[in-house]
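Can't paste images in this forum, so I'm doing it all in text. The chain is below; anyone willing to post the predicted structure tokens underneath?
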Amino acid sequence: MSRHPQRQNTTASIGILAALFVTCMLGCAPYQFGNAALFPQNIRTVHVPIIRNSTFREDLGIRLTEALNKEIELRTPYKVTADPLADTVLRCEVIDETKRVLTENDADYVRALDAAVQVRASWSDRQGRLLMKNSIVPTDDLTILFSQDERFVPEAGQSIDTATQKAIEDLANRIVSQMEARW
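Text version of the structure:
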């Protein structure tokens, strides 16, 4: 029988804990914490050219470009760059902007309206491979269509501009969400 059984148990426990620690560290080495783990790791930079606008509201492309740049910098590990030779390019086009009446009062005054913005988006790498694909409805189209509606009530002090800005911010959020890596 050993003279120090408690010392042997402590040494064995420390050895087991050390082995578990090393195994865990080696097994978890590629794991990343935070939102960076949601996005493809081989990309560092994204170029977002000024977004083309096919509507009569001239500022929509610029406003969406600013919202996308802000959203990419805020939510992804990527750096937005002006260099067209970045790792990837996110191209978008505002293709439609509409306003429609939802409700009127008895005197035919507008009570609530809906502002809608539609955008076509495509994200590709330097070789032209698409990185953002429509996984719900696969098509041969190289772009994904995004549409966002926002309700506004003029009587409450809301305007078409505030509703459109909210739609643009929501579109930027949805487009950046599509940049996440697929499981």
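The first strand starts at residue 45 and ends at 47. The radius of gyration is 26 Å.
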